[in-house]
């Protein structure tokens, strides 16, 4: 019984230390913020965000030719759809008074919007097009989650 009590108290001590460490970290951790340089610019990471616009337009052409909802459409658009979803989540998390930047806009509508942007801006990247899409719908965003 004495050995059990010794083990229990050491486990409790370890838990107390862990909880204290978490509490200290929560106090000193920097808050989430919108980060960009003084001109409002920021680096958009790799993956499909760095795909050149003409390559995205080509992928959209292949996807559309095979039909919306087809396996080829899904395969062609999966990476782009994932990028948009990640962008949406980060934007919603980092932007004050924003529940959903793309509220009421379907994924297919977003892809077509970025496709049109890319056709007009062939020197840009897919990720830049998604950023421009967010800017274009910002005033219509869902500000409060229900």
Features of this protein?
mainly alpha, 146 residues, 62% helix, globular, single chain, 5 helices
Largest sheet: none
- Average per-residue pLDDT, rounded, comes to 83
Q: Percent helix among the residues?
A: 55-70%
How many domains would you count in the coordinates? 2
Distance between the termini: 53 Å
Fraction in beta strands: under 5%
- Kindly state the number of beta strands: 0
Gyration radius, rounded: 23 Å
Number of H/I helices? 5
Shape: globular
SSE run:
HHHHH
Find the structural class using helix and strand composition: mainly alpha
Spans of 5+ residues with little confidence (pLDDT < 50)?
23-33
Would you kindly provide a brief summary of this structure?
This protein has 146 residues and is mostly helical. It is built from five helices and no strands. It has helices spanning 2-28, 53-66, 71-94, 107-120, 126-137.
Describe this structure in words.
Mean pLDDT is 83; it is low at 23-33. The longest helix has 27 residues, at 2-28. The chain folds into two domains: 1-30; 47-146. The chain is globular. The protein is 62% helix and 0% strand. The chain is an all-alpha fold and 146 residues long. It has five helices and no strands. It starts with a helix and ends in a 9-residue tail after the last helix.
